[in-house]
What does this fold into?
Amino acid sequence: MRLLIGFDQYPLDPFHDLLPGWDVVRTTPDRFAELGVDADVLCPIAARVDADLIAAGRCGLVQQFGVGLENVDIDAATAAGVLVARLPGDVTGNADSVAELAVLLALALSRRLDGARRALRDRQWAQPVGRALFGGTVAIVGLGAIGAAVAKRLAGFDVRLVGVREHPELGGPPEVGQVVGVDRLVDVLGEADVVVSGLTFGEHNRNFFDAKAFAAMKPGALFVNVARGGLVDEAALLAALESGHIAGAGHIAGAGLDVHAIEPADPASPLVNHPNVIATPHVAGVTEQMMQRSRVLGRLQHESRRQLVIVRYAPDHVSYEEWVFNEADINNAKIVWAREMGPDDNQRLLAYFKNRHVWLLEADEKPPRLSDYSAQPPADPMGQP
It folds into this structure.
């Protein structure tokens, strides 16, 4: 069994115990397709899994160590019967890690950290004048795992938190005082001192933050994007920064960008180099804690060599931790992969698991392509006795 990881810095030592007998290989994204044809499981991280790789390869599972699947051709994988999975950000530490960087960017911008460092080097004391967060309004656009984690961390800053989400009737975390729908976005942008983007990205919301959105922002506001670069019309953001609407005279404002429309971002681009922009290379979720939890999400029991697979259809009222460790009697089994099926993934599998939320798979068994099965799945489509 071969697992290929598309990140050449990913630590491999823990896999020796977690997946005994497996050949675990790491590589750079540019060599991922070349090596991926001989892998049974693909973990792309920042690499691409396109239709050509799926057709040429033998893998039965694409398992992302994180939540982002925008570089995976899910349609091609579904057609080929290849399972596509990701790790829920709220239990791997990914969302918490991303939220921390969002707060860091907001603080660095509001307190003019770059300017303060320059002032020290130039022997200019007690300047520049920054702006504190307390007493202000922060709009969190998107109240999924990242948005909720951001709210939890900002609650201690004595700010008013407003959430914007597609389904406001679902409410939000207790720290968020008001939750409104996307139809109220313009109103919220006009009130917020800081806007944090935590939306899940898809073609339906590409350039969600466009010229109209930036024009609606309160003069002097800060914009932080730790979700996906495709959510932002970068030309419109640059124009807003240079026009003075966001970075207006006398205001302390700018943008904190961990994600970019094209990655890797061009370090010489006008947006990355703008004096009111703090840009980082998509590192918000890249922490030791996230990697550790992703590798041993739950735990894998050596003796049984089984893995617990989690799908999206866990009862809504039960948290992930309560479900796994209280409701599921798995005899101290460890979890190697936790996966969340997308709504358009293989319909036979989704139908089968509509009322079955867990299945077990031998850890040394090759993840099968569903196309290997007949039109009707067996009693247990994963072959578990």
Observations:
- The CA atoms of residues 197 and 225 lie 5 Å apart.
- The radius of gyration is 22 Å.
